[in-house]
Amino acid sequence: SLVIFRMARNKIKQRETDHQLILLEQKALQSMMNPHFIFNTLGSIQNYLLQSKSEEAGLYLSQFARLIRLNISSINSALISLDEEVNRLKIYMDLEQLRTDNKFEYIVEFEQGIDEEEVYIPSMIIQPFVENSIWHGISAIEGKGMIRISFSMQSAKALNIIVEDNGVGIMQSKKYSTRTEDHLHLSMEMIRKRLEILGKKMKVKTGMVICEASPGNDNPGTRVVITMPFSKNENGT
């Protein structure tokens, strides 16, 4: 009976963990669809139409619709293929490039041997850091911004993802910030919690480190290193 009790207790714990994950994933989706981004996008489309740039407005609108579709479909799977997640990130950055008149460029790199279609990762973890780079880091610099996202193998079950920018850096961005820090802080906390739960569930050491990319520079930039679990199938087993 002790064995049965332990099994029942483990099942309850597992259900609690799964429930926590679902809640955090739903919050992550809400965060992605935040009103700032939606209103800015609609504002940009409106501007193109007012300037009679119907082709640009059409392109912007179709990309925006694709992003919304991808965001919603990702909530139905425990994990998403790296290929699909990177595709979604690129659409997001393309939209932000249009909105900011090409204020920044971006590079996405993969370590040799990573098969983007074979690797499945938790979705909606990388975008908040990219959003932070654009809104808090790069928007405040004079020249052109650069965002570099790189993927490498940490272990047989974990990926290292680095999001790096040449923006004003962590300390200075607080001075320039026009958006509420609460939104950003909340996103970071949710990601930290999600990584922690996913790590326990998939038996992988996860982590998140945020630091300056080039300490001592006028614009030291920000580097985020995320260690997250990955799987060879979308159920995470």
Q: Order of helices and strands, N to C?
A: HHHEHEEHEEHHEE
Distance between the termini: 29 Å
What general form does the structure show? globular
Strand content: 15-25%
What structural category arises from helix and sheet content?
Answer: alpha+beta
- How many helices? 7
Average residue-wise pLDDT: 85
With strands numbered from the N-terminus, the spatial order across the biggest sheet is 2-4-5-7-6
Low-confidence segments, ≥5 residues, pLDDT <50?
none
Helix content: 40-55%
Radius of gyration: 19 Å
Largest pleated sheet: 5 strands, mixed
The total strand number stands at 7
Q: How would you describe what is shown here?
A:
The protein contains seven helices and seven strands. The strands form two sheets. A five-stranded mixed sheet has the order 2-4-5-7-6. β4 and β5 form a beta hairpin. α1 packs antiparallel against α7 and α2 runs antiparallel to α3. It is globular. It starts with a helix and ends in an 8-residue tail after the last strand.
Which tags fit this structure?
237 residues; alpha+beta
Ordered list of secondary-structure elements with their pairings:
Blueprint: H1 2-32, H2 35-50, H3 54-74, E1 80-81, H4 82-99, E2 104-110, E3 120-121, H5 127-138, E4 145-153, E5 158-165, H6 170-176, H7 181-202, E6 207-212, E7 222-229
Parallel strand pairs: 2-4
Antiparallel strand pairs: 1-3, 4-5, 5-7, 6-7
Helix pairs in contact: 1-7, 2-3, 3-4
